[in-house]
Design brief:
Layout (H helix, E strand, L loop, with lengths): L7 E3 L3 E5 L5 H9 L1 H4 L9 H22 L8 E7 L5 E9 L8 E7 L8 H16 L4 E6 L4 H9 L3 E8 L2 E9 L3
Antiparallel strand pairs: 1-2, 2-3, 3-4, 4-5, 6-8, 7-8
Helix pairs in contact: 1-3
Length: 184
């Protein structure tokens, strides 16, 4: 699949791009890193399972999301963080419904390869996704749920303007629950 035919958001030295089949190995590698698997255990998989998810869930979900813009309901978007210089897939940023949250429950989630941490990519990617959602869709509020001991993700969420609104109990674990409202 040609990348030019895929939805992208330009972020300067990298871009966000909807998942494609060629991303499978990079996603498996990143989600298999202990630092990612600890906080996103549902993303860890075999290559065969990730290929199935990418072809039968991620790609169709992205197309459904883009077809629904601007009037989103429960659609999901999964975007890779792609370095412009090398076209390397270094992480991902997503938005979908977090069923465990009440009310306005669209969340953002993200992960980045251990080789690219602490370089500002994740914060910049999350900010770009937030901007897209608030400017091009009917989304008025976003959520993030982060384990309290995940210092890096808590920091990213705070840098993106989210405010701690309390805690959420999900699958027997307590998460920090952050909220960001669209500025009117």
């Amino acid at each position: 699949m040609k990348e030019t035919s895929l939805f992208t958001i330009d972020c300067g030295d990298f871009y966000l791009r909807e998942f494609c089949e060629e991303d499978v190995d990079a996603i498996v590698e990143i989600t298999g890193q202990p630092e990612v698997a600890e906080f996103l255990p549902d993303w860890k998989s075999t290559r065969a399972l990730r290929l199935d998810w990418t072809l039968n869930e991620d790609i169709p979900d992205n197309k459904a999301f883009l077809a629904a813009v601007p009037n989103l309901t429960d659609e999901i978007i999964r975007l890779g963080i792609i370095l412009k210089e090398t076209a390397e897939f270094i992480g991902f940023c997503t938005s979908g419904i977090k069923e465990e949250l009440c009310g306005s429950n669209r969340e953002v989630a993200f992960a980045i390869s251990k080789h690219y941490r602490n370089q500002g990519y994740t914060t910049k990617a999350v900010k770009a996704l937030i901007q897209y959602l608030f400017e091009h869709t009917n989304v008025k509020q976003l959520n993030a749920v982060v384990l309290p001991h995940n210092a890096s993700s808590n920091k990213v969420i705070q840098k993106c303007g989210f405010n701690l609104s309390g805690h959420a109990q999900i699958d027997g674990e307590q998460f920090n629950h952050y909220v960001l409202k669209k500025k009117q």
